[in-house]
Amino acid sequence: MSLSKEAALPAWGYAVAGATGAVLANATVYPLDIVKTRLQVQVKKRTVQTDGVLVSEDPEKQTPAVPEPEHYASTMDAIRKIKKKEGLSGLYAGMPGSLIGVASTNFAYFYWYTFVRTYYISVQAAQGNLSTVAELSLGAVAGALAQLFTIPVAVVTTRQQTSEKENRKDLITTAKDVIGEDGWTGLWSGLKASLVLVVNPAITYGAYQRCRETFYPGKKNLKPMEAFFLGALSKALATFATQPLIVAKVGLQSNPPAGQKKFKSFVEVMKYVIHHEGLLGLYKGISPQLMKGLLVQGLLMMTKERVELIFLLMYRWLIKKLGK
User: Fold this and answer.
1) pLDDT of residue 47
2) Whereabouts are the Solcar repeats (predicted)?
């Protein structure tokens, strides 16, 4: 059965479909989320002579009592070490909070994206496909609105994911710790970086729409693997473009390295990373970030397309029954 989804579902229908797909996809590949977060917050210090100044700190000034944090050389190395030290449960640390965050963020994003897109089309009386600039702009607006409401969960989850097993606490206790350390505003740590990072979903879904029109012009209902392919491709483009900002946001939301004061801005995090690891340090963790992104976005869009179709059938049946 061929059904058009255009303007058939209300905004909440697309929001629930997006949130459902996101939760299922993220739960499937959650260990990769832990790994990419750990890789992005670790600092590999190097000693390089630059104009008479050593890049790495003076060892004599370091506190010997502070143990060196675990260092991960690669994705597989991180998985092995986390599993050995914390058990299998270590690869799922902070999962409940993360999935709550994923569900709320994606619900908010798809709700606002559908709302602002529909509003824009009605006001502009737009005919046919929207331009790439319009798609990216609408996606950025939707992403900004979603971040304002959902970033506290991301802050708490990042704290859980980067805490040692013996110091790890539940969602509520971790949130209280954040508030105790930084006040209520601490729950919105990294907000500026997150608002800048709205270009990530904007690029992702803008690219998804554009690739869909390119590869499958006029096709209303995509097959599961077609949706997976487009989702993975669009996420890869967005990840390469925004990885330095992703690293900076994680640095802001996690506990700072031993002996390092808490970062105040994403620019400060980026300077710190470049100082110790060079420009390539801004792309640390990109391997699991890409793997996670490709799988999650592919599974998300594949599931979302199916759920939207089911909702559409149910919604039309309900409207028909009610005689509206």
Assistant:
1) 45
2) 9-119, 130-214, 222-310
Residue type, 81: K
- Alpha-carbon distance of 131 to 192, in angstroms, equals 27
* 8 A C-beta contact, residue 17 and residue 320: no
Torsion 244-245-246-251 (CA) sign: positive
Neighbours of 177 (CB within 10 A): 16
Domains within the chain, CATH numbers bracketed: 11-43+72-257+283-322 (1.50.40.10)
Q: How far apart are CA 303 and CA 185, in angstroms?
A: 35
pLDDT per residue over 191-235, tens digit each? 776 777 777 777 887 788 888 888 888 887 788 888 888 888 888
The CA–CA distances, whole Å, from 152 to 84, 141, 146, 172, 190 equal: 30, 19, 12, 11, 10
Cα–Cα distance, 164 to 41 (Å, whole number): 13
- Does 148 have pLDDT greater than 60? yes
pLDDT given for residue 324 in this prediction: 53
Helices (H), the chain: 11-28, 30-41, 75-86, 95-124, 132-161, 171-182, 191-196, 199-215, 224-253, 266-277, 286-322
Give the position of tokens 């597989």: 76
- When computed from its CA atoms, the radius of gyration of the chain, rounded to whole angstroms, is 21
Prediction pTM value: 0.58
Distance between CA atoms of residues 257 and 272, nearest Å = 11
Of 65-79, 98-112, 132-146, 303-317, minimum mean pLDDT range = 65-79
> Could you read off the pLDDT of 21-79 as tens digits, one per residue?
888 888 888 888 888 888 877 776 554 444 444 344 444 444 444 456 677 888 888 88
Average pLDDT (236-249) is 83
* In contact, 78 and 322? CB cutoff 8 Å: no
The Cα diameter of the chain in Å comes to 81
